[in-house]
């Protein structure tokens, strides 16, 4: 097994670049960090190009089938590769795959309209996963699904749901042509309370930007726009919290 002790090693320099979107797209690969996330990736059936691990992880049971992919690294290399203050010491170079919509279109969909905060994006994907929604659409202006902060916030849910990056208008039209109702979300009491919508096995739910909400152009294209009645004095809910309330209601028991 190869051992790399210096952050200046060419392979480490290349791996470090795979935390940046441009280099990820050019290489078709990204760098995944952390024991839990690497285990989730391997358990999902994906094959890593490389695994970099400090000594403490070399005997990890999940890594045994990929022994030929493992390179041992020093703690200083782990610190260099890490995007966190406390590196876990295990990384995997994974394929950055472009997902496609299911054919024929069917099921439940969460659409993200310019959600910019990585923590919110990751939480939205995790919540969709928890609710049983199988497809999440990352619209324009939404934080990149393969950015280190989004990857951490998704906590492995990206391996359980389909993530598609696409312009939302064509997706809305395609869902509607397939007979799938599309719900927008807005802080507007003239919209319909989410409680008045019956749970269904078929729907699309759009949630909008943290500060500006959904694009008004998209709001005009939906079948129905929903709001959450607020009883207290708070002006609004965090987008991930609001989406969670609506998702679990729309999915039903």
UniProtKB/TrEMBL annotation:
InterPro entries: Alpha/beta_knot_MTases, MRM3-like_sub_bind, Ribosomal_eL30-like_sf, rRNA_Methyltransferase, SpoU_MeTrfase, SpoU_subst-bd, tRNA_m1G_MTases_N
A GO cellular-component term linked to this record: cytoplasm
The keyword Methyltransferase appears for this protein: yes
Annotated keywords: Methyltransferase, Transferase
Domain RNA 2-O ribose methyltransferase substrate binding: 31-100
UniProt entry tagged with the keyword Magnesium: no
GO biological process: methylation
Any Pfam family: MRM3-like_sub_bind
GO molecular function, one term: methyltransferase activity
Family: Belongs to the class IV-like SAM-binding methyltransferase superfamily. RNA methyltransferase TrmH family.
Stated name of the protein: RNA methyltransferase
Organism: Lacticaseibacillus zeae subsp. silagei
